[in-house]
Amino acid sequence: MTATATEELAEPYLRGVLASAGLDVEYVRGDGDTLYYRRGTEDVPVLDFVGGYGSTLLGHSHPELIAYARELLAAQTPIHAQFSRHPYANEVAAKLNRIIKRETGSDESYFAIFANSGAEAIEAAMKHAEFERYIRVETLRAEIGASIEAARTAVADGTVAAGEADALLADVTAHNDAVFAGTPPLFLTPVGSFHGKLAGSTQLTHNPVYRAVFSALAAQARFVPVDEPGAVDDVVRSERRWLHDVAIDGDRITVVQRPFPRFCAVVLEPILGEGGIHEMPEPFVRDLQRVAAELEIPVVVDEIQSGMGRTGAFLASTHLGLRGDYYALAKSLGGGIAKVAVMLVRASRYKSDFEMMHSSTFAKDSFSCLIAAKVLDLLEADDGEVYRTAESRGAELLTALQGLMKEFPDVVKDVRGRGLMAGLEFVEQSDARSGTLRELHGSGFFGYYVSGFLLREHGIRTFPTSSAVYTLRFEPSANIGTAEIGKLTEALRDVCSQIRDTDGERLAPIG
Ligand code: PMP
């Protein structure tokens, strides 16, 4: 690709894709659930159901947060004061602990590692889990090394006969060396997962478009189907590896198998976000928790999209009775104005040396931590009013979407979600009557074209989930009103009618 001086240089291909779906508008202002783009001299309002992919549970430009941010900047709060005391980070961690303890009933504390984005928080979790695994691997290596040494001593002092014993010890050592060197850590995560797009986290993201090219880079994951009983155990059975240990039994050396700590962590979203808004089935969650306990590995709960109150509880995992050893939070933690993420680790698993191995220039700064602390205060105000509103608004939204599914059973395949994390899945119709509809279905961008139509014709912003393009996602702020839900329903009714009753020309991209 070549560029001229006037050409778009910031991700030009993406700009083209946006243009082809009619989504290439520039928003100049955001307020509550409304984004504005400029047309000539006027600002055109757009009702925003994307909500920064889940980052604006409190809406765009929340007045109290904006006022607080102004105050902080005016007071010259130092953004860059790395390697000094950070009481504001401690305050965020303390507030998160209070909320999580209340919600999960746990009395164990969680230590916090800060980050700048969701993927970074997940990578911190991956690294911490790998640190835990490393310690177990090295402990095992030392234990087996000691028993091989003891066996050699027994050969040397004649307790056991040489000859066969020497060969056996050589075999055991060769086998173990191969397992130690050739068995990278393995993460277990559900089919459909999305945990980020950095070098490590992208390997835990199921969609091969984001993962396959980079699979040689780093960690490895096995994706477990969520609706097949016994699937987790099957994966563990097929992927586990064994080390050989030795024991002296009278005048003989015997070989004993010991499990190699291959598995690193179970990582899961309580509700798949980018995978199409699917809540994890409870039996699957129970299986994952049991297997993690058996393998002694941490359960990492990715609440980056589902957490912070959007589902009516601070953690969506609360609804499933799922307790995390680690939690990852981001998106709405920054209140729509700061880039802040945090990874929490249960005290009993926490390795404090990790703090000397992991850091980021931008993470844990005063500005983003103070904003996050304020966001937590806003969420907790009036005895959790925001959570209750998210739940009731979400119920209203889901009821409206379910109404559409009843009205258009041939067009709407499913409506799913919890609270303000809702999804509507369209029926895939590769054999649609009209050529235009067949093209839309065959394009791989179905949901994006529908989004372009909704923006163009109804002033509504929604997107498909990134790994399931037939599912539109709706993640507005907790302030979304009945009128706005009504406007969305009308607009979606129009989409459904276009698909059911017309040749789909109006849905097709312009130009
Ligand atoms: N985990 C989940 C569940 C997400 O939804 C996302 C973002 N969509 C991420 C991780 C990655 O977050 P970020 O884009 O901030 O890196």
How many structural domains does the protein architecture include? Answer: 2
- Average pLDDT works out at 95
Oligomer: single chain
Secondary-structure-based class equals alpha/beta
**Rg, alpha carbons:** 26 Å
What profile does the largest beta sheet have?
7 strands, mixed
CATH architecture call of the largest domain: 3-Layer(aba) Sandwich
Q: What is the share of helical residues?
A: 40-55%
Unreliable sequence segments: none
Termini separation (Å)? 23 Å
Note the beta-strand portion.
15-25%
CATH topology of the largest domain: Aspartate Aminotransferase, domain 2
Major beta sheet, strand line-up: 4-14-13-12-9-5-6
What molecules are bound to this protein? 4'-deoxy-4'-aminopyridoxal-5'-phosphate
Features:
511 residues, alpha/beta, Aspartate Aminotransferase, domain 1, Aspartate Aminotransferase, domain 2, 2 domains, seven-stranded mixed sheet, four-stranded mixed sheet, 14 helices, 19% strand, binds 4'-deoxy-4'-aminopyridoxal-5'-phosphate
Describe this structure in words.
With 511 residues, the protein is α/β, with parallel strands linked by helices. The protein has two domains: 12-62 and 382-507, Aspartate Aminotransferase, domain 1 (Alpha-Beta Complex), CATH 3.90.1150.10; 87-364, 3-Layer(aba) Sandwich (Aspartate Aminotransferase, domain 2), CATH 3.40.640. Helices cover 42% and strands 19% of the residues. The chain has 14 helices and 19 strands. The strands form five sheets. The chain has a seven-stranded mixed β-sheet, sandwiched between helices. Strands 1-2-3-17 form a four-stranded mixed β-sheet. Helix 5 (118-156) runs antiparallel to helix 6. It is globular and about 95 Å long. Residues 53, 117-119, 122, 194-196, 269, 273-274, 302, 304-305, 330 line the site of 4'-deoxy-4'-aminopyridoxal-5'-phosphate.
